[in-house]
Write a structure and sequence with these properties.
Blueprint: E1 3-7, E2 23-33, E3 41-43, H1 47-57, E4 61-66, H2 72-85, E5 95-98, H3 118-134, E6 139-144, H4 145-150, E7 161-167, E8 173-178, E9 184-189, H5 194-220
Length: about 220
């Protein structure tokens, strides 16, 4: 089993303390799309820092984008934005896209990836992957085993796509990289605790409130 960790700006990980003998892969978020109604795209604030430090530890560095696309056009925009974020980076492995958006549609944008039909979500994924592949990269799909079984049409996924399944059955999330060969690589990911999930929601809500306040102040001027 090959171990690795998944890190974002929300994690407080000191890469210097990582035992590279045990941890073979480091998977870093380059950016993400917000749950807000405008679905704005952001660069992970610690992407460059984590990327630079990770390369000092190992050459086995993967980069991913956290998608919130619910249409083919949104998927295309996300993929092109992702390509801009990694344009100056050394890419030794396929890029990754995280597909597991099931946000609260009452508070945020009116539809999530989980609410799409199997055909609709598969088309969204394929469009994202198509843009990445057309630009010379391979790509992994990152999601939970439940989503792969129930929400994706595996047979219709882009043939060049390599899938990564997260196993949520233990306190760690194991990723099986299905490379269409006899062997599978398993990567252990950090499991965010409930506090971090709540914190993420609060942080997104704060951004939305601040934007609305700015609009109010501008309208009064």
């Amino acid at each position: 089993m090959v171990k690795g960790i998944l890190i974002t700006e929300d994690d407080t990980i000191n890469l210097n303390n990582i035992n590279i003998t045990d941890t073979k892969f480091i998977i870093i978020r380059a950016g993400y799309t917000s749950y807000g109604k405008n679905k704005e795209k952001y660069k992970d604030s610690k992407f460059d820092e984590y990327y630079s430090n990770a390369l000092k530890k190992t050459h086995n560095v993967l980069i991913y984008y956290e998608s919130c696309a619910t249409s083919v056009s949104e998927a295309r925009e996300e993929a092109n934005y992702f390509l801009k974020l990694i344009n100056d980076k050394i890419i030794n492995y396929p890029l990754c896209v995280l597909i597991n958006d099931d946000h609260n549609t009452v508070i945020y944008s009116k539809i999530s990836q989980k609410e799409l039909t199997k055909d609709e979500l598969t088309c969204v994924i394929n469009e994202f992957c198509k843009v990445i592949i057309e630009n010379g990269y391979d790509i992994f799909i990152l999601s939970s085993s439940t989503w792969f079984k129930n929400l994706f049409d595996i047979e219709k996924l882009n043939s060049k796509t390599v899938s990564m399944e997260i196993d949520d059955s233990s306190m760690y999330r194991y990723i099986n990289i299905n490379n269409h060969m006899d062997d599978k690589i398993q990567i252990v990911l950090n499991e965010k605790c409930a506090f971090n999930r709540v914190y993420d929601t609060i942080k997104i809500a704060k951004k939305l409130i601040l934007k609305k306040l700015k609009k109010v102040f501008k309208s009064k001027k």
